[in-house]
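Annual report, structural modelling task.

Input specification for the zinc ion complex:
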Amino acid sequence: MTTPTPLPNPETRAGQEEMKRMGIVPWPIADDLTRPFWDAANRHELVIQRCTACGEFRHTPRADCLFCKSTDVEWVKLSGKGTVFTYIVDHRNEVPGFDGHYVFAFINPVEAPRTSVRLTGNILECDPDDVYIGMPVEVMYKELKPGVTLPEFRPAPEAKLRSKGQTP
Ligand SMILES: [Zn+2]
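The model returned the following structure:
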Protein backbone atom coordinates (compact mmCIF):
# COMPACT_ATOMS: atom_id res chain seq x y z
CA MET A 1 0.00 0.00 0.00
CA THR A 2 1.39 3.37 -1.00
CA THR A 3 0.81 6.68 0.68
CA PRO A 4 -0.67 9.30 -1.70
CA THR A 5 1.64 12.18 -2.50
CA PRO A 6 0.48 15.25 -0.56
CA LEU A 7 -0.66 18.23 -2.64
CA PRO A 8 1.61 21.28 -2.56
CA ASN A 9 0.73 23.85 0.08
CA PRO A 10 -0.35 26.98 -1.87
CA GLU A 11 0.42 29.17 1.16
CA THR A 12 4.16 28.53 0.99
CA ARG A 13 6.60 29.76 -1.61
CA ALA A 14 7.85 26.20 -2.15
CA GLY A 15 4.29 24.98 -2.64
CA GLN A 16 3.57 27.78 -5.12
CA GLU A 17 6.67 26.93 -7.10
CA GLU A 18 5.67 23.27 -7.09
CA MET A 19 2.16 24.13 -8.33
CA LYS A 20 3.68 26.22 -11.13
CA ARG A 21 5.95 23.32 -12.05
CA MET A 22 2.89 21.03 -12.12
CA GLY A 23 1.05 23.46 -14.41
CA ILE A 24 -1.70 24.12 -11.86
CA VAL A 25 -3.43 27.44 -12.46
CA PRO A 26 -6.36 28.92 -10.54
CA TRP A 27 -9.73 29.37 -12.22
CA PRO A 28 -13.15 30.47 -11.03
CA ILE A 29 -15.81 27.94 -10.04
CA ALA A 30 -19.35 29.19 -10.64
CA ASP A 31 -22.09 28.69 -8.07
CA ASP A 32 -25.81 29.50 -8.31
CA LEU A 33 -25.18 33.15 -7.40
CA THR A 34 -22.30 33.79 -9.82
CA ARG A 35 -23.19 31.48 -12.72
CA PRO A 36 -24.89 34.20 -14.85
CA PHE A 37 -21.68 36.26 -14.67
CA TRP A 38 -19.44 33.37 -15.76
CA ASP A 39 -21.88 32.13 -18.42
CA ALA A 40 -21.90 35.65 -19.90
CA ALA A 41 -18.09 35.76 -19.84
CA ASN A 42 -18.07 32.56 -21.89
CA ARG A 43 -20.24 34.41 -24.46
CA HIS A 44 -17.80 37.35 -24.27
CA GLU A 45 -20.33 39.53 -22.50
CA LEU A 46 -19.94 41.41 -19.23
CA VAL A 47 -23.03 41.38 -16.99
CA ILE A 48 -23.67 42.51 -13.43
CA GLN A 49 -26.69 42.51 -11.14
CA ARG A 50 -29.16 45.38 -10.89
CA CYS A 51 -31.90 45.61 -8.31
CA THR A 52 -35.28 45.77 -10.02
CA ALA A 53 -36.85 47.40 -6.94
CA CYS A 54 -34.57 50.47 -6.65
CA GLY A 55 -32.47 50.29 -9.83
CA GLU A 56 -29.02 50.19 -8.18
CA PHE A 57 -26.25 48.09 -9.68
CA ARG A 58 -24.17 45.83 -7.47
CA HIS A 59 -21.10 43.66 -7.85
CA THR A 60 -19.82 41.15 -6.76
CA PRO A 61 -23.02 39.11 -7.04
CA ARG A 62 -25.09 38.86 -3.88
CA ALA A 63 -28.55 37.68 -2.92
CA ASP A 64 -30.01 41.00 -1.79
CA CYS A 65 -29.68 44.69 -2.57
CA LEU A 66 -27.17 46.74 -0.57
CA PHE A 67 -29.53 49.72 -0.63
CA CYS A 68 -33.10 48.43 -0.22
CA LYS A 69 -32.56 44.73 0.72
CA SER A 70 -34.84 43.57 -2.09
CA THR A 71 -34.02 40.15 -3.57
CA ASP A 72 -35.55 41.11 -6.95
CA VAL A 73 -32.70 41.21 -9.41
CA GLU A 74 -31.88 41.29 -13.11
CA TRP A 75 -28.59 40.79 -14.93
CA VAL A 76 -27.63 43.74 -17.13
CA LYS A 77 -25.12 43.69 -19.97
CA LEU A 78 -22.43 46.37 -19.66
CA SER A 79 -20.42 48.02 -22.42
CA GLY A 80 -17.16 46.79 -20.91
CA LYS A 81 -15.83 50.34 -20.71
CA GLY A 82 -14.65 51.78 -17.40
CA THR A 83 -11.87 53.49 -15.51
CA VAL A 84 -9.21 52.24 -13.13
CA PHE A 85 -10.32 52.99 -9.55
CA THR A 86 -7.10 51.62 -8.01
CA TYR A 87 -4.52 48.97 -8.77
CA ILE A 88 -1.39 47.16 -7.65
CA VAL A 89 1.56 45.78 -9.59
CA ASP A 90 2.36 42.35 -8.19
CA HIS A 91 6.11 41.74 -8.36
CA ARG A 92 6.16 38.81 -5.91
CA ASN A 93 4.23 36.63 -8.32
CA GLU A 94 3.17 34.04 -5.75
CA VAL A 95 -0.01 32.88 -7.49
CA PRO A 96 0.48 29.76 -9.59
CA GLY A 97 -0.17 30.34 -13.27
CA PHE A 98 1.08 33.93 -13.27
CA ASP A 99 4.50 34.70 -14.67
CA GLY A 100 6.35 37.96 -14.43
CA HIS A 101 4.84 40.99 -12.77
CA TYR A 102 1.26 41.89 -13.53
CA VAL A 103 -1.37 44.50 -12.73
CA PHE A 104 -4.42 43.71 -10.61
CA ALA A 105 -7.04 46.47 -10.68
CA PHE A 106 -10.43 47.57 -9.47
CA ILE A 107 -12.49 49.00 -12.33
CA ASN A 108 -15.45 51.36 -12.19
CA PRO A 109 -17.75 50.51 -15.11
CA VAL A 110 -19.06 53.62 -16.89
CA GLU A 111 -22.66 52.47 -16.34
CA ALA A 112 -22.22 52.07 -12.57
CA PRO A 113 -19.61 54.44 -11.12
CA ARG A 114 -20.88 54.14 -7.54
CA THR A 115 -18.77 52.51 -4.87
CA SER A 116 -21.11 49.51 -4.77
CA VAL A 117 -19.63 48.27 -8.05
CA ARG A 118 -15.98 47.36 -8.48
CA LEU A 119 -15.04 44.96 -11.20
CA THR A 120 -11.72 43.21 -10.70
CA GLY A 121 -9.22 42.00 -13.23
CA ASN A 122 -5.78 42.26 -14.67
CA ILE A 123 -4.79 45.11 -16.98
CA LEU A 124 -3.26 43.40 -20.01
CA GLU A 125 -1.72 44.51 -23.29
CA CYS A 126 0.29 47.32 -21.72
CA ASP A 127 3.38 47.94 -19.62
CA PRO A 128 2.46 47.92 -15.90
CA ASP A 129 4.12 51.36 -15.69
CA ASP A 130 1.46 52.67 -18.10
CA VAL A 131 -1.41 52.06 -15.69
CA TYR A 132 -2.76 55.01 -13.68
CA ILE A 133 -5.79 55.76 -11.53
CA GLY A 134 -8.56 57.06 -13.78
CA MET A 135 -7.16 55.28 -16.85
CA PRO A 136 -9.88 54.44 -19.38
CA VAL A 137 -10.01 50.70 -19.98
CA GLU A 138 -12.12 48.23 -21.92
CA VAL A 139 -12.96 44.62 -21.25
CA MET A 140 -11.34 41.73 -23.06
CA TYR A 141 -11.82 38.01 -22.57
CA LYS A 142 -9.21 35.42 -21.71
CA GLU A 143 -10.11 31.75 -22.05
CA LEU A 144 -8.37 29.86 -19.23
CA LYS A 145 -9.64 26.50 -20.46
CA PRO A 146 -12.68 25.41 -22.49
CA GLY A 147 -15.79 26.72 -20.75
CA VAL A 148 -13.90 29.00 -18.35
CA THR A 149 -13.40 32.56 -19.56
CA LEU A 150 -12.13 35.43 -17.47
CA PRO A 151 -13.05 39.07 -18.14
CA GLU A 152 -9.85 41.12 -18.13
CA PHE A 153 -9.10 44.70 -19.14
CA ARG A 154 -6.78 46.60 -21.47
CA PRO A 155 -6.20 50.31 -22.07
CA ALA A 156 -8.99 51.98 -24.04
CA PRO A 157 -7.89 53.82 -27.22
CA GLU A 158 -8.12 57.17 -25.38
CA ALA A 159 -5.79 56.06 -22.52
CA LYS A 160 -2.51 58.02 -22.23
CA LEU A 161 0.40 55.58 -22.21
CA ARG A 162 3.74 56.65 -20.75
CA SER A 163 5.46 54.00 -22.89
CA LYS A 164 4.27 55.97 -25.92
CA GLY A 165 5.47 59.29 -24.50
CA GLN A 166 1.98 60.40 -23.50
CA THR A 167 1.20 62.17 -20.22
CA PRO A 168 -1.71 60.72 -18.22
ZN1 LIG B 1 -32.50 47.89 -4.28
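Residues 29-158 form one domain.
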